[in-house]
Amino acid sequence: MAAGRVPRRLPGALGVLCLLLRLGLISCDSLKLFGAVNKNITLRPPSHTPFKEILWKKQKDKVVEWEENLNITYFPPFQDRLHLDTGSGNLTIFNLTSSDEDNYEIESQSVTNNVIYSLYVVETLSPLELNCTLVNESIVVQCGLQRQPNIHPELTKYSWNCPFVNCENNSKTEMYFMKEDDLSKEVQCIVENPVSKSESSIVLASCAPKSHLRHRLLIIVAAVATVVVILLFAKVSLVGNRRR
């Protein structure tokens, strides 16, 4: 399977097998699994009695085969990247690559519930970069990965965390804030896929020019001074009225 493509079809042989099994007493289910590139993943049989034989297949190709009192046989291209636990039937694949992405199945008389394992191999996300610019009366915060994933970019999801309403349920790669907003607040961007998560944050004040901050500070100081003068005037008036 080409790198970056999601397996969209059920293998012909497995599809026919599932159809036949659904007409009988044994069920055939599908399980979606996600593994990270260069990491490991374990495929686990849903239920079993003690194994006497195990065959794991990728589509129609054998991956590993074992029979009681015989050695385990690993098939190419997996020879040095597999471990089969004959007690549990678990199959571990090491150092995953995009070519490992496909549908897998275990065949054994000990397995009473057949499962199709749809394995997706996904890249671990790189660190985030947050940049901000001042455009007219708005502050634009842009969120992006240092390196965009080449495998399954459609599984990458963006979200935001901040005390403003526009951060709620927002999945865009950039956010807009007004210069009149509380620039002391922090804005956090979160990017995740099924195998990893990356986060970064920025304080909005770092996005505004110093002149704008000074202007806001002067407004705040002026407002505070006005309140103080009003309070002092009210106090003087109250004292004067008492003396009379």
Number of strands: 15
Overall CATH class of the largest domain: Mainly Beta
Estimate the global geometry from the Cα principal axes.
elongated
Biggest β-sheet: count, sense, barrel? 6 strands, mixed
Q: What distance separates the N and C termini?
A: 96 Å
Count of DSSP H/I helices = 2
What is the share of helical residues? 10-25%
Known CATH architecture of the largest domain? Sandwich
* SSE string, helices as H and strands as E: HEEEEEEEEEEEEEEEH
Overall pLDDT, averaged?
A: 82
Radius of gyration: 31 Å
Summary, kept brief:
19% of the residues lie in helices and 37% in strands.
Describe this structure in words.
This protein is an alpha+beta fold. The chain has helices spanning 12-23, 210-243, and strands at residues 28-36, 41-43, 53-58, 61-67, 73-74, 82-84, 91-93, 102-107, 114-122, 128-135, 138-145, 157-161, 174-178, 186-193, 196-203. It has two domains: 12-122, Immunoglobulins (Immunoglobulin-like, Sandwich), CATH 2.60.40; 128-207, Sandwich (Immunoglobulin-like). It contains two helices and 15 strands. A hairpin with a 2-residue loop joins strand 10 and strand 11. It is elongated and about 100 Å long. The N and C termini lie far apart (96 Å). Mean pLDDT is 82; it is low at 1-17, 19-27 and 211-218.
Question: What distinguishing features does this structure have?
Answer:
Immunoglobulin-like, 2 helices, 244 residues, 2 domains, elongated, three-stranded antiparallel β-sheet, 15 strands, six-stranded mixed β-sheet
Write the layout of secondary structure elements.
Layout: H1 12-23, E1 28-36, E2 41-43, E3 53-58, E4 61-67, E5 73-74, E6 82-84, E7 91-93, E8 102-107, E9 114-122, E10 128-135, E11 138-145, E12 157-161, E13 174-178, E14 186-193, E15 196-203, H2 210-243
Parallel strand pairs: 1-9
Antiparallel strand pairs: 2-7, 3-4, 3-8, 4-5, 6-7, 8-9, 10-11, 11-13, 12-14, 14-15
